[in-house]
Amino acid sequence: MAWYDDLGALRAWASTARPVFICGQERSGTSALLLAMSRHPALFPVPDVFETFIFRFAGDLLKDPPRKMQQGYLRGEESLSSLRSQLALLAGGDPARLGDDDLVRAFFAFAAHEVYPGRRPLEKTPSHVHSLPRIFSVFPQARVLACVREPTEVVDSYRKRLAREQALGKPPESWKWLQLTDQQLIEQFRRVDKALRDSVAFAPGRVFQVPYGWLTADPRAALTQICQFLDEPFDEAMLVPKAGRKDRVDERLGQPLSATADSRATTLTEAQAAKIAWDTGRLTRRWRVPGPVQPEADPAQAAGAARA
Questions:
Q1: Among 15-24, 193-202, 255-264, 287-296, which stretch is predicted with the lowest mean pLDDT?
Q2: Interior CA angle at 212 toward 245 and 162, to 5°?
Q3: Can you give the pLDDT at residue 299?
């Protein structure tokens, strides 16, 4: 029985699938990590940096015009049209009857069977860090790689990317997401940090925190550890960017991971950097630790250990 013949078959597939999702704080290396992971022979060879937002906007699969990155992830208009036909079969003729969770399952089932056959699902959307409960509800065997970075570096990266987008003459709607104040970004950091800490309750050991500095300082060692977390062997291809990629706003995405590191905050004043560091001190200490997200120590126990 094909996955699109029966909802039970689709849900059974999702219950045993082992997708890998990359999410976390924006401007923290999610794109660079996706490109490295997509070169692993066991994972979807996603052709470019596509953010599907599928866990947030599953219904967009049925809309016209389609969400461009969802279509790009499936490798084109014809593929998306085929998925919609299979959704109609699954829903008895009316795909709108399907719930969002089944649309998400069908999106990845189609990709796994028709677009990237024989490979393990791989997807990257930073804001999916706020959809972690749903990710693990839909895909109980999922593994998540959550990228984080020193907050001052993130703010600086936002400013640099905004300047590049504007210099290229792009319309405001393409870069308005970058136009955030320092305080808005600090609040964003706190929401991301809370989402990661909350995941310990429903997905213990299944969300791996990937600090940007750790990933770029020694990519081979970092990717080896990430592969162990995913129960996959390390592959040298992950370290070698594919030639002939199209030009990107961030040219470093076409370079080895070690070349993406840039911690020089050139857009922030000393006072700005100091305030951001002060306001994010606790989460910054947490974000420097690579590996599966751990529960926070009980304050009373921590105090007792400090006195001892």
A1: 255-264
A2: 65
A3: 44
Hey, what amino acid is at 273? Answer: A
Tell me if 142 sits within 8 A of 37, measured CB to CB.
Answer: no
Give the gyration radius of the chain's Cα atoms: 20
Q: Which residues pair with 22 in a beta bridge?
A: 124, 145
CATH number assigned to the domain covering 3-295: 3.40.50.300
Helices (H) and strands (E) in the chain, counts: 14, 5
CA distance 140 to 92: 27
In the DSSP assignment, the letter for residue 111 is: I
Residue type, 198: D
Of 14, 103, 90, nearest in space to 55 by CA: 103
Contact 167, 233 (CB under 8 A): no
Q: Where are the domains of the chain?
A: 3-295
For the stretch 47-95, pLDDT in tens is: 999 999 999 999 999 999 999 999 999 999 999 999 999 999 999 999 9
Do 69 and 53 meet the contact criterion of CB atoms below 8 Å apart? yes
